[in-house]
Design brief:
- This protein is 42% helix and 4% strand.
- The protein is mostly helical.
- Helix 7 crosses helix 12.
Length: 436
């Protein structure tokens, strides 16, 4: 409906007992320890909601009433007072599929008043200057207006619910501020808004058995066949890192100089590592094998200028796990050990929880049945990961808790600092330097 002229806002005919100088909240809504004298007043153009928050980490929020049309501002301010001081109307709580609370948070209050602001501006654009002039047709057309906006489904739902709140508080407001019941309260919001394309009960697509089964198989391979190699390498890498000094050491500086001189004389590349995809000198490795500090290594390298760098920095741990009757890796590099340990721990978790995923993720009966029957099947086609024969020297490792304890014990065991002097061999991998 439309009105040809926009008169000045009128005062409520049946009175309003909240004075302009009164605090915006009273009684139970006022948090303990808050002085009412510090609160915004009903007549203020901006209401500060931060004193009403019961959570210390909640951001400060406020309501700016100057953004509402002048002719409708006082009516919405009275509704705002009801929103702050009165419990959510029972007719909006006592229905199925509701997540509403009796005492909304300041965030919910701010969002509701923002939706009221959109509603008030839409009404003013139609020439409506008083809430009592709103009729059910206006509600229908407002729902159409929201449906045509580029908004998320949840945003549209909250916008309609804000209008429902305005109607729910009608018995506590002057007759001039009361709106009729929105039709979606009787028929359901789903009849007034577009279908929610993202409203599946479980929006995350399930992992197909063809993906999960090989994942579980390789999780088992890592845990059963490669775990000892990875844990040994990680223990060696962390033991080396423990040798890095945190201060200048003249003796370590001499060892570092001797090591660099030997690499230069023998024309062997320095140990290297990839950082953010770029090959560079493994500074922490050189510091570890000489007992120097990172700063010492960096300063000494600057004195030598550009030196060749190898892509590999092997750790002195043997590779015993087999893949197709061959070592699964030629060696584990110094900088690879932590990176390999992370998926190893993930494999432990996948192995431990994989068969029980259906306890945490809603699965269809056919999906979970297929997962149980296809996981680690011994009857898989020849050549597939699941059909590979286990190597004769496969070592079974402990379950996750015991494996974690084993790893911790290994990391706590000291190992001698082992290295060899640089060699002039044709290989691109530098050997370890002698240290005192």
């Amino acid at each position: 409906m439309t009105v040809s002229t926009i008169p000045a806002p009128r005062e409520p005919q049946d009175g309003w007992r909240v004075l302009a100088t009164a605090p915006i909240v009273t009684g139970e809504r006022l948090p303990d320890g808050v002085d009412p004298a510090t609160l915004s007043r009903f007549g203020d153009d901006r209401w500060d909601l931060s004193p009403l928050s019961r959570r210390h980490n909640e951001p400060a929020r406020s309501i700016n009433w100057t953004t509402f049309p002048v002719t409708l501002r006082q009516g919405f301010k009275r509704a705002g007072w009801a929103l702050l001081n009165l419990p959510t109307p029972a007719q909006l709580l006592e229905r199925t599929a509701t997540a509403r609370v009796e005492r909304p948070s300041t965030g919910t209050i701010a969002r509701t008043t923002e939706n009221w602001r959109r509603y008030a501006n839409w009404l003013a654009g139609r020439g409506i200057t008083d809430l009592t002039d709103v009729d059910p047709t206006d509600h229908d057309e407002y729902a159409v207006y929201l449906a045509n906006l580029n908004l998320a489904h949840g945003t549209r739902t909250h916008a309609l619910y804000a209008v429902s709140l305005l109607w729910g508080f009608a018995p506590h407001l002057p007759s001039s501020d009361r709106v009729p019941m929105p039709p979606w309260e009787a028929e359901g919001m789903e009849h007034y808004l577009p279908a929610n394309a993202e409203g599946n009960e479980n929006a995350t697509p399930p992992i197909h058995p063809a993906v999960m089964s090989p994942l579980l198989v390789w999780a088992l391979r890592f845990v059963e066949d490669f775990a000892d190699d990875i844990l040994d390498a990680l223990a060696a890498q962390q033991h080396l890192r423990a040798q890095i000094s945190d201060r200048y050491d003249p003796d370590a500086g001499a060892r570092l100089k001797a090591l660099l001189d030997a690499h230069l004389q023998n024309e062997t590349p320095l140990p290297g590592e990839f950082t953010h995809g770029r090959l560079g000198v493994a500074l922490s490795y050189l510091a570890a094998v000489t007992g120097a500090s990172i700063t010492q290594v960096n300063n000494r390298l600057c004195a030598y200028g550009h030196l060749p760098v190898a892509e590999a920095t092997p750790l002195p741990t043997p590779i015993t796990g087999l893949l197709h009757d061959e070592p699964w890796k030629p060696h584990i590099n110094y900088h690879e050990a932590p990176a390999l340990a992370t998926p190893h721990l993930t494999a432990l978790r996948v192995r431990h929880f994989g068969p029980s995923f259906r306890l945490f993720i809603p699965l269809s009966a056919s999906w979970s049945t297929s997962l149980r029957t296809s996981t680690c099947s011994r009857s898989a086609p020849a050549g597939s990961a699941a059909s590979e024969p286990r190597s004769a020297n496969r070592r079974m490792v402990a379950p996750p808790r015991r494996a974690a304890a084993t790893a911790k014990a290994r990391l706590s065991q000291p190992s001698p600092r082992t290295s060899a002097s640089p060699s002039s061999s044709a290989g691109s991998t530098p050997t370890r330097a002698s240290v005192a």
